[in-house]
Amino acid sequence: MIPKTAKLRVARPTDNLAKITDMYVNGLGFKLLGSFEGHNGFDGSIVGHEQHNYHLEFTHHKGTTVGKAPTQDNLLIFYFIDTQVWEECCEKMQAADFVHVPSYNDYWDDVGKTFEDVDGYRVVLQNREWTA
Length: 132
What we know:
By secondary structure, the chain is of the alpha/beta class. The protein contains two helices and eight strands.
């Protein structure tokens, strides 16, 4: 079993490294935790919060094109238990240039909102507590 103290990094490529980094920092309130250039031909940024056990890494391999998300159902999902905080975060997402879109799976539209980034990947802000 992976211990609770382990950190999870979700990494994905992008053709829009600076824009994606800005969107996730400003839209989700993440911090730029680190960045790198020219690491075996890759540039990248790592965003998240120092005290959280997860963060996101965006990379760009020079000389390659990765294009858009493969489907509309590639999601990061965040659950909120405080409606006021959820509403504020939804506003920040749009101010950071995320586009509010209807969810591919309408389940997420019941009490949540789906936002799409410049690469076509989606983030769901769900206004309910997650239960197992």
